[in-house]
Amino acid sequence: MLKFRWINLTSEFLMKVKLIKKSEIQPGNRIFKRVMSKTYLIRRTDLSFEIIEYMCRHQLASLDLGELEGNIVTCSRHGWKYDIVTGKCVLGDGTSLKFCKFEEDEEWIYLILNSEGDEDNY
Ligand code: FES
């Protein structure tokens, strides 16, 4: 079940969404998770986590419907390609995938969204 709460930081309302238990993903692995109609790629390194909005920057198709070869995913709609490690668009208009803000406690990773459900880049 999706759990979230609104927090007011400065003048903007942000939503903190419980995304994944840290124990669900081991170092060196990645998981795809769907939250409020968007797909996210959660990657765990030895030291930290990274969360990428796994949605094509052309027309927001979910990239989990595309083909993944090595680190390159090809969007199933019109063929734009992204490097899922760097987030860079390698075929398309050059707009990179979004890295998302997150917070963590000892047990959970929380995705931070603004009031319109969009993430801010780092
Ligand atoms: S929606 Fe992905 S290439 Fe058009």
Can you give a write-up of this model?
It contains no helices and eleven strands. Strand 1 and strand 2 form a beta hairpin. With 122 residues, it is an all-beta fold. It has strands at residues 4-9, 12-21, 30-35, 38-44, 49-53, 67-69, 72-74, 81-83, 89-91, 102-104, 108-114. It has a single domain (4-114), classed as Rieske [2Fe-2S] iron-sulphur domain (Rieske Iron-sulfur Protein), CATH 2.102.10. The protein is globular. Bound molecules: FE2/S2 (inorganic) cluster. FE2/S2 (inorganic) cluster is lined by residues 56, 58-59, 61, 75, 77-80.
SS elements, strand count? 11
Structural class from helices and strands? mainly beta
> How would you sum up the global shape?
globular
Unreliable stretches = none
Following the backbone from N to C, one meets helices and strands in this order, namely: EEEEEEEEEEE
Strand content: over 45%
Read across the widest sheet, the strand sequence of neighbours is: 1-2-11-10
Return the CATH architecture.
Answer: 3-layer Sandwich
Report the C-alpha radius of gyration, rounded: 14 Å
Measured between the Cα atoms of the first and last residue, the distance is: 27 Å
Mean pLDDT metric: 88
Roughly what percent helix?
A: under 10%
Heterogens: FE2/S2 (inorganic) cluster
CATH superfamily annotation: Rieske [2Fe-2S] iron-sulphur domain
Q: How many domain regions?
A: 1
CATH top level is Mainly Beta
Sheet with the most strands, sense and barrel status: 4 strands, antiparallel
Question: What is the overall number of helices?
Answer: 0
CATH fold annotation: Rieske Iron-sulfur Protein
